[in-house]
């Protein structure tokens, strides 16, 4: 179980690049006790809204509260699952369709805690983090995104 | 009762109605009083879904302000 009690920043301005994600995976090569990683990537989808296509999402957040809440979720997940480590990154600002806005990365000695811990973290952060998304549409208008609960 | 200061924060679609991201209110002593005031100056708030957080913790009932606090109006989340 993690003994790291720091509140970590999770926010990145703009999309999360493949190079960033690859770098984070590569950085774990030196952690020889890890036997499995689980990764969730949230990608901006070209939904249709009354015939208009979503071209990007502009994310904003109540950052201080979101980081505090994410810290609570992290503590809960580490208490429930035998994880070696967990990394979370979420975009702020404009992320275009096809780009990555959420990166959840869990690791464990065997696969089950990493897979289950990753899934529960994704579900919880979508419900509990004060983050908002303005879906920018092809006709220059926008609608506010609401997560399915 | 001693004087206090409440910082009210608006986000997402709520901030679109209010046209400001924050307000400072003096001498309000519970959340119901603040919401009644906000509904008076921003009538569309009454038709808007949101949760309240006091000092970054979600609340579900009227909450007293004993000192300076931060009240946030949080429209439905859309992270991920």
Question: What would you say this structure looks like, in words?
Answer:
- The complex is a heterodimer of chains A (149) and B (80).
- Chain A has 3 helices and 8 strands.
- Chain A has helices at 18-26, 63-80, 111-128, and strands spanning 11-13, 36-43, 48-49, 52-61, 83-96, 100-108, 131-137, 142-144.
- Chain B has 80 residues and is α+β, with helices and mostly antiparallel strands.
- The termini of chain B are far apart.
- The model of chain B has no long low-confidence stretch (mean pLDDT 95).
- Chain A binds chain B through residues 42, 59-62, 64-66, 68-69, 90, 101-102, 122, 125-134, 144-147, and chain B through 9, 11-13, 53, 56, 72, 74-80.
Distance between the termini of chain B: 44 Å
The total strand number of chain A stands at 8
Please outline the major beta sheet of chain A.
8 strands, mixed
- Going by helix content, strand content and strand pairing, the class of chain B is alpha+beta
Strand count, sense and barrel status of the largest sheet of chain B are: 5 strands, mixed
- Summed up, the helix count of chain B is 2
List keywords for this structure.
heterodimer; A: about 150 residues; alpha+beta; eight-stranded mixed beta sheet; 3 helices; B: about 80 residues; five-stranded mixed beta sheet; 2 helices; about 20% helix; about 30% strand
Task: Describe the protein's topology.
The complex is a heterodimer of chains A (about 150) and B (about 80).
Chain A: E1 11-13, H1 18-26, E2 36-43, E3 48-49, E4 52-61, H2 63-80, E5 83-96, E6 100-108, H3 111-128, E7 131-137, E8 142-144
Parallel strand pairs in A: 1-5
Antiparallel strand pairs in A: 2-6, 3-4, 4-5, 4-7, 5-6, 7-8
Chain B: E1 5-10, H1 12-18, E2 22-26, H2 31-41, E3 51-54, E4 57-59, E5 69-74
Parallel strand pairs in B: 1-5
Antiparallel strand pairs in B: 1-2, 3-4, 3-5
What's the short story on this structure?
Chain A has 149 residues and is α+β, with helices and mostly antiparallel strands.
């Amino acid at each position: 179980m993690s003994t790291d009690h720091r509140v970590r920043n999770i926010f990145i301005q703009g999309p999360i690049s493949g190079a960033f994600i690859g770098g984070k995976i590569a950085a774990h090569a030196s952690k020889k006790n890890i036997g499995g990683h689980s990764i969730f990537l949230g990608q901006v989808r070209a939904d249709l809204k009354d015939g208009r296509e979503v071209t990007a999402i502009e994310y904003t957040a109540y950052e201080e509260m979101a980081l505090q809440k994410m810290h609570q979720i992290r503590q809960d997940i580490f208490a429930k699952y035998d994880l070696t480590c967990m990394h979370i990154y979420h975009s702020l600002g404009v992320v275009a369709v096809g780009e990555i806005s959420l990166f959840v990365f869990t690791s464990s000695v065997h696969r089950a805690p990493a897979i289950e811990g990753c899934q529960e973290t994704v579900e919880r952060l979508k419900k509990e983090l004060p983050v908002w998304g303005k879906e920018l549409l092809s006709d220059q208008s926008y609608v506010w995104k609401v997560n399915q609960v | 009762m001693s004087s206090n200061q409440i910082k009210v924060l608006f986000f997402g679609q709520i901030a679109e109605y209010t046209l400001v991201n924050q307000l400072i209110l003096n001498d309000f002593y519970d959340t119901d009083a603040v919401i009644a005031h906000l509904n008076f100056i921003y009538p569309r708030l009454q038709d808007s879904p949101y949760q309240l957080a006091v000092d970054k913790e979600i609340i579900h009932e009227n909450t007293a302000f004993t000192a300076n606090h931060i009240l946030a109006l949080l429209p439905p989340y859309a992270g991920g």
